[in-house]
Specification:
Layout lengths: L5 H6 L1 H16 L4 H9 L4 H13 L6 H14 L2 H16 L7 H5 L2 H17 L3 H15 L1 E3 L4 E2 L4 E2 L5 E3 L4 E2 L4 E2 L4 E3 L11 E2 L4 E2 L4 E3 L3 E2 L4 E2 L4 E2 L7 E4 L4 E5 L5 H4 L7
Parallel strand pairs: 1-4, 2-5, 3-6, 4-7, 5-8, 6-9, 7-10, 8-11, 9-12, 10-13, 12-14
Antiparallel strand pairs: 14-15
Helix pairs in contact: 2-3, 4-5, 6-8, 8-9
């Protein structure tokens, strides 16, 4: 039976809930005991658990798990906002993904969440001027998760990437808060110019599976990009675009499309 620690529950309710869920998993499926203990119950904080998980997933013959863990722990210690943003991403995934029934799931099982957290460590390295290490983490995340996010891209909090296969986010892309996207989304460029060549995705946007948003364009807040669309021009706020090339087909249909995840057109 899960044991709630009142002090931890008060200070960090997200981490306490994950630990409670972990104890339930171990009780129900003892064969997962080693995995759950090493991934969650062994760690005093979610930051330490994330550092362990990132290192475990991205280590290889080229760089050991120990070194990657030290790098990740340094990032979380130096920038406490990384842990805060990770909690927001966890909660976003739990609230928006109907296949997510516990906060534990993204941390242990979901490659979209894990890939975004790996990107955040790489982005911290990039901002610290440690660009070759950042490129290494980008490379390994792409190889392991099938998610290629340039470490120079800027991505807000409360991000949910569902399924997360074949995601590409370019170097000068900017993604706001509370954005949701599905698999095979590309935030790409259209040329070799050195200035901003990737899109700006504002807060609350929902991007459907297989959509391509290309060039230095803006997708306005709380808009929807329909699955399979190719967006080449600015999208006004609170709109729905669809097609190749994408055109406005109506309003967004709700106040927070990235939260409701409603992708049906004609609403």
């Amino acid at each position: 039976m899960a044991t709630t620690h009142p002090k931890l529950a008060e200070l960090d309710p997200v981490w306490q809930r994950i630990r409670d869920e972990a104890e339930i998993v171990v009780s129900a499926e003892p064969l997962l005991g080693g995995l759950v203990h090493s991934s969650i119950l062994h760690h005093p904080t979610i930051e330490r658990a994330l550092a362990y998980r990132i290192a475990l997933k991205l280590s290889s013959g080229e760089m050991s798990e120990q070194i990657l863990r030290e790098i990740s722990e340094e990032a979380y210690t130096s920038d406490p906002s990384l842990g805060e943003v990770a909690r927001a991403d966890l909660v976003a995934t739990f609230e928006r993904d109907p296949a997510c029934h516990r906060l534990l799931q993204p941390l242990v099982y979901f490659k979209g969440f894990q890939a975004v957290q790996a990107y955040r460590v790489a982005h911290w390295l990039w901002t610290e001027g440690r660009r070759d290490l950042a490129y290494f983490i980008q490379m390994r995340a792409s190889e392991v998760f099938g998610v290629d996010i340039h470490p120079a891209a800027t991505i807000g909090k409360g991000i949910m990437i569902d399924h997360a296969h074949s995601i590409v986010i370019g170097e000068t892309a900017r993604v706001g808060d509370n954005v949701s996207m599905l698999h095979s989304v590309t935030l790409g460029g259209t040329g070799k110019e050195e200035e901003i060549r990737h899109p700006l995705i504002e807060d609350g946007v929902l991007i459907g599976a297989g959509a391509k948003v290309l060039g230095n364009i803006r997708v306005g807040h709380c808009s929807r990009v329909a699955a399979g669309s190719v967006v080449l021009k600015d999208v006004p706020p609170c709109s729905t675009v669809a097609g190749v090339p994408a055109k406005i087909v109506g309003e967004a249909g709700c106040d927070q499309p990235s939260v409701t995840m409603d992708q049906l057109l004609g609403k």
